[in-house]
Amino acid sequence: MDSASSRAARHRTCAACRFQRRKCKPNCIFAAFFPADKKQIFENAHRLYDVRNMEKMVEHLDPEQRAEAMKTIIYESEVHAADPIGGCRRIIGKLETELQLACAELDHVRRELEASRGRAQAMVGAEMLAPPIGAAEPEARCFLLTPLP
Ligand SMILES: [Zn+2]
């Protein structure tokens, strides 16, 4: 088998081209992400974005950016299929809550550490210990992201 015919044998019509009833060319931008045996993944993405919108979103991107964009589209559409009401927004909300809790815990630990250093300085003498955390790392305060509206 020559290389052209073996390539043709390996290249099956992807789920996106099959849906659009068009020939799936070797350079099809969807073939790597919506193979023929992953029809449900395509259907979820198409339901959320529509195949023509997906094409417009990724056709001008370089291959690396296109792969990231398609992975993001597929992830979001899978989450939306599993949770149509909450979707990714529910996941983002959970992560924001976890971030707020982690920042609060970090601030608490820093305050405890500074208090411990203060007590240790009083017992040992100020010259032998490191400066307080706030003085050594002025930008080290935990920041909170602005929650989604
Ligand atoms: Zn295709």
UniProtKB/TrEMBL annotation:
PROSITE patterns: LOB. Coiled coil: none annotated. Residues 12-113 form the LOB domain. InterPro entries: LOB. Belongs to the LOB domain-containing protein family. This is LOB domain-containing protein 7-like. It comes from Canna indica (Indian-shot).
